[in-house]
Design goal:
This protein is mostly beta strands. It has one helix spanning 2-16, and strands at 50-60, 66-70, 73-79, 82-87, 90-94, 101-105, 108-117, 125-134, 145-156, 159-170, 184-194, 199-209, 217-229, 232-241, 249-259. The chain has a single domain (2-263), classed as Porin. It starts with a helix and ends in an 11-residue tail after the last strand.
Length: 270
């Protein structure tokens, strides 16, 4: 419970900052997967730009187990409408029996996202994403897994709706402790932008099945993103299971930094 109170305090401290105004930017509107909800939007990182993400997540599991998770992520806008990325999940498992927290890598993931349709009057923004999860580390589980995800985003003024649907392939042996690629997953999220204070608020319902034959997990989540500076975005979220499967409660807080390296940019784009 001490870990839960600490995580709650961190999330509360962040959310108290959301009242501070900031000149309008745009990066806070970009929903990354798990930042602060599972659903992501259909828009990639800008061409030739990098985005470095540093999140922390706490999950209180049924029976008293606890999971601490940080997933450093680096994404790069390789060409227009396309990004590539790398995730390195580091997890800590506390089984609540006085043995301490067992830390270790929970896989190595590479991914790519391509936005093949920009939102117009008749069609939403549409993207496809592919992930490969390698069993690297003591908490990574067994076998390599793959996933493909379809993403749609539709806007109505300051409101947007996002639909994600993914399908996983590969080994059904023991999955990794942190952020495993599910056998299938779907989520629906709605967000609202508060332009004058550079804040985005989002709500979500997500369903998933970890491996074939496993029970279906249903979760509800709320979160916010705040543009702290022109290149730094803070986010925080809370999630609760709506079924018998999944964490009793999960809290997340994170920081993302957008930047570019001039040496990697073509001369005509500088």
């Amino acid at each position: 419970m001490q870990s839960l109170r600490t995580a709650t305090g961190m999330a509360g401290l962040f959310l108290s900052f959301l009242a501070s105004p900031l000149a309008a930017q745009i990066d806070y509107r970009n929903l990354d997967d798990d930042r602060p909800v599972v659903t992501e939007d259909a828009y990639p990182v800008e061409r030739y730009a990098f985005e470095l993400l540093a999140p922390y997540r706490f999950e209180a599991e049924p029976g008293g187990d606890e999971l601490h998770l940080t997933v450093p992520e680096l994404a790069y806008g390789l060409v227009r409408n396309t990004q590539l990325g790398l995730k390195l999940p580091l997890a800590g498992v506390d089984e609540g029996v006085g043995t301490g927290t067992d830390w270790g890598l929970s896989g190595l993931r590479v991914f790519g996202l391509y936005n093949f349709n920009t939102e117009g009057r008749s069609l939403p923004a549409l993207s496809v994403r592919a992930d490969v999860d390698f069993p690297v580390g003591s908490l990574a589980g067994e076998g390599t897994r793959f996933a493909i995800k379809a993403i749609a985003t539709r806007s109505w003024g300051s409101m947007r709706a996002h639909l994600n649907a993914s399908w996983g392939f590969g080994s059904d042996d023991e999955p990794g402790v942190a952020e495993p690629l599910h056998r299938w997953a779907a989520s629906l999220a709605v967000d609202r932008t508060l332009f004058r204070s550079s804040i985005l608020l989002v709500g979500e319902v997500a369903v998933s099945q970890s491996v074939e034959g496993a029970p279906t997990a249903v979760n509800g989540s709320l979160g916010g993103r705040w543009q702290w500076t022109p290149t730094l975005v803070l986010d925080a979220g809370i999630s609760r299971r709506l079924s018998d499967t999944g964490p009793d409660i999960a809290l997340t807080i994170g920081l993302s930094h957008a930047f570019a390296l001039r040496g990697l940019m073509p001369r005509g784009s500088r």
